[in-house]
Amino acid sequence: MEAHELAQAAKYIGAGLAAIGTGAAGIGVGTLFGQFLNGALRNPSAVDGQFGRLIFGFAVTEALGIFALLIAFLLLFAI
Q1: Potential cystine with 28: which of 18, 61, 66, 67 (Cβ 3.0-4.6 Å)?
Q2: Is the full-model pTM beyond 0.85?
Q3: Residue 72 · residue 19 · CB < 8 Å
């Protein structure tokens, strides 16, 4: 195996590992909304106070997923 082929293989492995973060973000969003709905069903009067935190958590989780995807694309196409 030549050095160029080894570098290509390492690049693909690194991009695949970085892309795991996008799946983890999906799991995080599902957990976030599931726990919100669980709490909302238990205590409907607290929904209005927690909705802003839900949206903030969603935005941060999705931003981290998009960042992981960006890193994967940079590893694939820029390096």
Answers
A1: 61
A2: no
A3: yes
